[in-house]
Amino acid sequence: MTIIRSIAFNTLFYLNLIIRMIIFTPYYFVSPRKQAWSVPKNWAKSNLWLQKVIVGADVHIDGLENIPDGPYICAPKHQSFWDTYAFLPHIADPVYILKRELTWIPLFGWYIQKMKMVPIDRGKRSAAMKVAVRGAREAVAGGRQLMIYPEGTRTAPGAPPHYKYGVAHIYGELGVPVVPIAHNAGLYWPRRKFMRYPGVIRCRILPPIQPGLDNDAFLKKLEEVTEAACDELLIEAAKSDNPPPMPPTAVKRLKELGVSV
């Protein structure tokens, strides 16, 4: 049954994307940018609804009161494609730093450009950082929220963290709060797999890390608070009435935490 539900969800997920892009394209491109955000935000909400109804995976978010007004850096844990859109409804005017190749995709790339994202050439690391910082400064000056995934790539639940220094560099340059977000979505929407599992995806929006720390101290604190919360959510999922399948990285981490599965 889980396989059938996963196939059904994945099929409807992509149909939902294609159909909405076609139907709402005229409205999206003639609307002011902030007003046009209603299209991708409603798309995100509809995906969460589809996952709940078809797969049986609900979402519970704690700490929404920790989201500040105005510009800040949003730093979610990156475990799944799920976390690239799930927080959109709660962020006023986000800007993503993304690989420039995404802007070349017909229609999808035009949607990205409409929102004035920051495309970078990942093959040119030093130049990419300069472009990222310049784009981030412009976004913050406009009151926007910068989305950064501190590890840069999707990491399996329980895997050893690899936080990159880029987020610390941008933190030091911008002087705005950083909001860490921990979650366990990778247990229910595993990376590089089509399976989707039922249960409750739990997210925790942590108190902002205020500007003023030196870059190394900031990066250490970001990793410590995020990983501690992720460990707690991993344990909670493992002890739930209907735990999802645990990948080897999660099993190993749970053993390190003294939890048997």
Total number of domains: 1
CATH architecture call: 3-Layer(aba) Sandwich
Characterize the overall form.
Answer: globular
The order of strands across the largest sheet is 1-7-6-2-5-3-4
Level of helix content?
40-55%
Termini separation: 23 Å
Order of helices and strands: HHHEEEHEHEHEEHH
Unreliable stretches: none
The count of DSSP E runs of length 2 or more, i.e. the number of strands, is 7
Describe, in plain words, how this protein is organized in 3D:
Helices cover 45% and strands 14% of the residues. By secondary structure, the protein is an alpha/beta fold. It has a single domain (57-256), classed as Glycerol-3-phosphate (1)-acyltransferase (3-Layer(aba) Sandwich). The protein has a 7-stranded mixed beta sheet with strand order 1-7-6-2-5-3-4. The longest helix has 29 residues, at 2-30. The relative contact order is 0.16. Keywords: Acyltransferase, Membrane, Transferase, Transmembrane, Transmembrane helix. The chain crosses the membrane at residues 12-30. GO terms for molecular function: 1-acylglycerol-3-phosphate O-acyltransferase activity. Its EC number is 2.3.1.51.
Short description:
With about 260 residues, the protein is an alpha/beta fold. It has helices spanning about 1-30, 35, 40-55, 110-115, 125-140, 165-175, 215-240, 250-255; strands spanning about 55-60, 70-75, 95-100, 120, 145, 180-185, 200-205.
Detail the topology: elements first, then pairings.
Elements: H1 2-30, H2 33-36, H3 38-55, E1 57-62, E2 72-76, E3 94-99, H4 108-114, E4 118-120, H5 125-141, E5 145-147, H6 165-174, E6 178-183, E7 199-205, H7 215-238, H8 248-256
